[in-house]
């Protein structure tokens, strides 16, 4: 991925409250003090960048917007430099508004229930252990590149029924869409076209040889009129599942390991009390939520007393909402046994992440297996931790020293 | 006399986060879409009161009521 051209640079931010930019390197490195500053200034802030964009800074303002599909459309879900025409069936249901949204969502829900995920769990444990086998004898490992990254890729490839060996292809498309695409429309279009062509081939194969995977499931699904879905809907949903299922959970696993590498007390506690891991996963999801979504204001309204005007985008930062001290006592502290945790890492309202049960299972299994087999690890002081930019935040380079090298 | 508790999920608010099912599987079940509803009439058996409150305080959609009867 290092050979792709760099997108156009934005001028550095000097006034966060009136000119915020979620692609600024300062935000990428350490967004938490920025969110605090914005939240102190106003429940909703605005920037002229991205052709005009608001950001709700409190949990309450985020909730209001997430639940208001009348004034806030999901037709555009990434805050970008440009606003080209929206394609129909871009990525249903995440890009759908009511009333189209519900049937498209209901179609995807049954394969992702907690019970369905339980069936996938043994495969996930095997995947995690195969990855650990690959570096357990080493002194050092990049835990983002060699562990966190491949867990969700292999899970979603398994569910879709596409080769796990195509992982690097998927990861490159995601980078082009979610990171480079913010500033470079061509990269985004190129990735979307390549993905569609890829899935068309797999659909073709299944016409003569049906399979028991999500591609066949969507090919055979019927809409509420009893008709097969349009090809553009099937392709849009497949693109969504591939994009949304990978670097999100990769980021969440990476941030969790980053926290545990820097916080031996939490790591030791989870090793001693593995039953606490599911509770800790919720807290790590709250404190290091990977996903920031977007909406487009389609009708003027007021949010937490602040007027918002049509034509602007909204940076819907679930991560910032989850750091709101009004909602979470000690919001900037990771409390791995936090009992009350209404975090919004998977969104709020009708667009709740369809893969939340999958992501939770992957995170739990990834941490359980990893802590069981490699209890001692810390950040390599000679290495650098780097974070992804923009829509999904997580460590992309996570150099660890393991066991005996410590 | 000890108070009796009853839980109720508002089906219009539930979005299927499934936190209640994870935290109090004795009190909640999920439908084929993963959306939650209370088991039976929602009566909380003695000893499970804490789990009822825990489920309520972890529902991101504020969809769970705990009714004291």
Brief description of this entry?
The complex is a heterodimer of chains A (about 400) and B (about 70). With about 400 residues, chain A is α+β, with helices and mostly antiparallel strands. Chain A has helices spanning about 15-20, 25-30, 30-40, 60-65, 100-110, 115-135, 145-150, 150-160, 165-180, 185-210, 215-220, 230-245, 245-260, 265-270, 275-285, 320, 355-375; strands spanning about 45, 55, 70-75, 140, 290-295, 300-305, 305-310, 315, 375-380, 385, 395, 400.
Characterization of this structure:
- The complex is a heterodimer of chains A (406) and B (69).
- With 406 residues, chain A is of the alpha+beta class.
- Chain A is built from 17 helices and 12 strands.
- In chain A, strands 1-2-8-5-3 form a 5-stranded mixed β-sheet. Chain A has a 3-stranded antiparallel β-sheet with strand order 4-12-9.
- Chain A starts with 15 loop residues before the first helix and ends with a strand.
- The N terminus of chain A is likely disordered.
- Chain B is an alpha+beta fold and 69 residues long.
- Chain B is built from 2 helices and 4 strands, in the order βαββαβ.
- The longest helix of chain B is centred in the C-terminal third of the chain and has 9 residues.
- The interface between A and B is medium-sized, with 22 and 17 residues.
């Amino acid at each position: 991925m290092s050979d792709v051209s760099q997108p156009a640079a934005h001028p550095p931010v000097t006034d966060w409250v009136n000119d915020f930019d979620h692609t600024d390197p300062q935000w990428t490195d350490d967004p938490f003090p920025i969110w605090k500053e914005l939240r102190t200034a106003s429940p909703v802030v605005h920037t002229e960048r991205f052709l005009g964009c608001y950001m709700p800074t409190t949990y309450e303002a985020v909730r209001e917007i997430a639940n208001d599909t009348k004034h806030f459309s999901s037709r555009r879900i990434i805050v970008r430099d440009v606003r080209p025409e929206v394609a129909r069936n871009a990525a249903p249901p995440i890009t759908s508004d009511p009333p189209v949204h519900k049937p498209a969502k209901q179609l995807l829900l049954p394969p992702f229930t907690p019970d369905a995920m339980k069936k996938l769990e043994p495969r996930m444990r095997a995947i995690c252990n195969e990855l650990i086998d690959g570096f357990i004898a080493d002194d050092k490992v990049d835990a983002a590149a060699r562990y966190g990254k491949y867990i969700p890729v292999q899970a979603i490839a398994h569910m879709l029924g596409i080769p796990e060996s195509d992982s690097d292809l998927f990861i490159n498309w995601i980078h082009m869409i979610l990171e480079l695409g913010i500033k470079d429309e061509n990269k985004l279009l190129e990735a979307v076209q390549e993905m569609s062509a890829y899935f068309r081939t797999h659909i073709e194969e299944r016409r003569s040889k049906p399979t028991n995977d999500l591609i066949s499931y969507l090919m055979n699904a019927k809409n509420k009129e009893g008709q097969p879905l349009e090809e553009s809907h099937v392709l849009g949903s497949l693109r969504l599942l591939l994009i949304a299922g990978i670097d999100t959970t990769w980021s969440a696993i990476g941030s969790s390991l980053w926290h545990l590498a820097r916080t031996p007390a939490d790591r030791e506690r989870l090793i001693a009390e593995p039953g606490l891991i599911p509770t800790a996963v919720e807290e790590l999801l709250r404190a290091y939520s990977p996903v920031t979504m977007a909406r487009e204001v389609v009708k003027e309204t007021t949010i937490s007393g602040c007027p918002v005007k049509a034509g602007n985008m909204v940076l819907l930062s679930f991560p910032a909402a989850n750091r709101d001290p009004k909602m979470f006592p000690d919001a900037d502290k990771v409390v791995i046994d936090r009992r009350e945790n209404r975090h919004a890492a998977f969104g709020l309202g009708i667009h709740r992440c369809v893969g939340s049960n999958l992501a939770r299972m992957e995170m739990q299994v990834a941490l359980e297996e990893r802590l069981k087999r490699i209890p001692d690890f810390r950040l390599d002081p000679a290495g650098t931790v780097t974070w992804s930019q923009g829509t999904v935040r997580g460590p992309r380079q996570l150099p660890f020293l393991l066991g005996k090298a410590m | 006399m000890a108070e009796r508790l009853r839980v109720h999920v508002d089906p219009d608010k539930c979005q299927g986060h499934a936190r209640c099912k994870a935290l109090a599987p004795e009190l909640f079940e999920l439908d084929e879409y993963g959306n939650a509803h209370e088991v039976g009439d929602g009566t909380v058996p003695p000893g499970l009161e804490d789990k009822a409150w825990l489920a309520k305080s972890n529902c991101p959609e504020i969809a769970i009521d705990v009714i004291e009867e």
